[in-house]
Design goal:
This protein is mainly alpha-helical. It has helices spanning 4-16, 19-55, 71-76, 85-93, 126-140, 145-151, 170-173, 175-196, 200-204, 208-211, 217-249, 268-295, 299-314, 320-325, 330-337, 343-352, 357-385, 395-400, and strands spanning 60-64, 80-81, 99-103, 113-116, 162-163, 166-167.
């Protein structure tokens, strides 16, 4: 293993020099900022258009059979009161008025009808909004404010929950341990392909023959895995720095929400569990992809198995509601302790707060043992499959080797 440092340094520096590494690493924060910018400016344009539309004056006619509309409001709007609904419809069709509102006698059973000149697909709803506002303002003074607030569902609530006699905010509690789940997801999505092709490149280029004359297979594969883990940490920093700088520099310009990190609770136990689950899960996943790439003659064939691994890894997300509502159910227990599906359930349950310490320790032990076992298999696969260029390496064949 005396060449481990050399292998590690070579793999680490070689990957950092690749343009694709930086493109993939920066693509996530850039895409996130681009999507946010598009949504922000789209909302700004929509709000401006809505404001401009609301400020437009238009001629209005009204028929009020409910006798609830205030004459003072209609006078303020310069609205004309007509006698029949058909008269108002004909007036709009002939262009005498821009809009006509019909308020039926029984508002609880009949519909309010609005007719108006077309002003665009997204602006035609201004007539319904105006009719609703006229009616609401007309009856506002006739109803007790408390009753009106209840009927309009404008009641405000404050909620305080307790756990073990202490104030407990479930949303804030999941932020700190939930970071490990988010980081794991981002790294797998953005870094998985790099893990998969880490060993097939040398096989396809026939460089592996020369490497194995000076470096042991175990040293080479361990160095590659260690470099991948380090590169993953570098990628975390690359992802977080642009997002942090964008928040600090453009906070006021983009009207971003204020984040007060001082109020976020930090539970040392859950954070430590999250960190251990993240590390053991990532090492296991890295070893699994390296093992697949070592057994396949080309990266193209290895990519087929990558999809299977991703399905096993992220399939538990479809049962995410069970992790919250039924954490002790058999299916949740199986998904939480089966190594290939365990990372997401364990990280998610730890973030939510329903993962007990004994269960967390059991999960960490299972993932650690699985990671060590997969690493051992990856080394053996690479040792016996490094020179296989034309066929897949059989796991049964490798395990039977002495």
């Amino acid at each position: 293993m005396h060449n481990l440092k050399t292998v590690y340094s070579f793999e680490f520096i070689r990957t950092l020099k690749k343009r694709s590494f930086w493109v993939i690493s920066l693509s996530f924060p850039l895409a996130a900022m681009l999507i946010f910018a598009i949504v922000f400016f789209s909302n700004q344009a929509t709000q401006k258009a809505a404001k401009d539309t609301s400020n437009q004056q238009y001629s209005l006619a009204v028929v009020d059979e409910s006798h609830l509309v205030s004459p003072a409001i209609l006078k303020h709007l310069n609205a004309t009161v007509l006698t029949t609904k058909q008269q108002g419809i004909d007036a709009v069709q002939q262009g005498k008025y821009d809009a006509f509102f019909y308020f039926p006698a029984h508002l609880s059973t009949d519909k309010i009808e609005t007719y108006g000149k077309d002003v665009g697909l997204f602006n035609d709803n201004r007539y319904q909004a105006a009719a609703q506002a006229i009616l609401s303002q007309s009856v506002a003074g006739k109803v007790d404010p408390n009753i009106s607030a209840i009927l309009q569902k404008n009641i405000q609530f404050t909620s305080t929950t307790y756990r073990d006699g202490q104030v407990y905010d479930g949303i804030q509690q999941l932020i700190a341990p939930g970071v490990f789940l988010v980081l794991f997801y981002i790294l797998i999505v953005t870094f998985g392909n790099q893990m998969l092709t880490s060993t097939t490149e040398e096989k396809e280029n026939r460089i592996i023959e020369m490497l194995l004359t000076t470096v042991q297979a175990r040293t080479l594969i361990v160095g590659k895995i260690l470099s991948l883990v380090t590169l993953a940490l570098v990628q975390i920093v690359i992802i977080l720095i642009p997002i942090t700088l964008a928040y600090l520099l453009l906070h006021d310009q983009l009207n971003l929400p204020n984040l007060d990190l001082t109020n976020i609770p930090f539970d040392p136990t859950r954070i430590a569990i999250g960190a251990l689950l993240f590390v053991s899960s990532f090492i296991m996943f890295t070893g699994l992809l390296v093992a697949i790439s070592a057994a396949m003659p080309t990266a193209k064939e290895a990519s087929g198995f990558f999809g299977i691994v991703m399905i096993l890894l992220f399939a538990p997300l479809y049962a995410a509601t069970l992790f919250i509502s039924a954490p002790t159910s058999p299916i949740v227990t199986f998904l939480s302790f089966f190594p290939l599906t365990a990372p997401i359930p364990l990280l998610l349950r730890n973030a939510i707060g329903n993962l007990t310490v004994p269960s967390a320790l059991l999960g960490i032990v299972i993932l650690t043992i699985a990671a060590a076992l997969i690493m051992t298999i990856a080394i053996r696969l690479f040792k016996y499959g490094a020179l296989e260029y034309s066929r897949r390496l059989s796991l049964k064949t490798v395990l039977n080797k002495r």
